[in-house]
Specification:
mainly alpha; 10 helices; globular; ABC-2_transporter_component; membrane; antibiotic resistance; transmembrane helix
């Protein structure tokens, strides 16, 4: 990998996104709007909003970053841009790292906006520091970015990208402990949930919700989510193709 090529790729992606206001709106506004909607859904039950809102603060950025990253990367390949870039002295690792850096910066902005609105505008009640909440939200957004880059290597169209949502995201939402405690699930489902990164993202949010300081469990959750993002990025670089068949 070459640092200058990686940064050049990231700058190119950011310049393209600057001319796509709809994508920026999707990234920054959709998680916030969903949190506001959830706030009014549970307007009469603040405790329910605090419990579910903290978990969804990690899930919403992951889902939106997954969609935007996978579709944007797929467009690069279907338009022939990716093939032209890889014909240059640009390695797959440089390309994936550049995309990860560009979308990672957007993920940081997205997580900051969503966390700020949840804590200071919607008055999400948490025992821990808002910075810990932001850290988990950021790691979740980065994980969504990594999953989007990985999925884009296997999709032949934007419609197929959307089809990966039920395959990769929905099962994690159902098994992450949002709807039922993971230890109350069937043993097989509990075992599956234990290897899904979203389960640790939700657990990390709940640790911040309940404890004033960072706990050992919180550290484990954060490391698992971050490690999953790195692993998926490596797999994305290994499976990256020049063109869509």
């Amino acid at each position: 990998m070459n640092a200058s090529r990686t940064f050049a790729t990231a700058l190119r992606v950011l310049r393209q996104l600057r001319h796509d206001p709809r994508t920026i709106a999707l990234l920054l506004l959709v998680p916030v709007l969903l949190l506001v909607l959830l706030f009014y859904v549970f307007d009469a039950d603040r405790r329910a909003f605090d419990g579910i809102g903290a978990s969804l603060l990690g899930i919403f950025p992951l889902v939106t970053m997954f969609l935007v990253t996978s579709i944007a990367t797929l467009r690069e390949r279907t338009s022939g841009t990716l093939e032209r870039l890889l014909a240059m002295p640009l390695g797959k690792g440089d390309l994936i790292a550049g995309y990860a850096l560009a979308f990672g910066l957007l993920a940081a902005v997205q997580a900051s906006v969503a966390t700020g609105v949840a804590v200071w505008l919607l008055d999400l009640s948490i025992a821990g520091s808002p910075w810990l909440l932001l850290l988990v939200a950021l790691l979740d957004a980065l994980l969504g970015t990594a999953l989007g880059l990985f999925v884009s290597a296997f999709a032949a169209s934007e419609f197929q990208v959307v089809q990966f949502m039920p395959a990769m995201i929905f099962p994690q939402i159902l098994l992450c402990g949002l709807f039922a405690p993971r230890d109350s699930m069937q043993p097989v489902l509990e075992a599956v949930s234990n290897v899904l990164p979203m389960s640790y993202a939700v657990d990390g949010m709940r640790e911040v919700l309940r404890h004033p300081d960072a706990t050992g469990d919180f550290a484990v959750d954060a490391v698992v989510v971050a490690g999953s993002a790195v692993l998926v990025l490596v797999l994305g670089a290994a499976t990256l193709r020049r063109r869509t068949p």
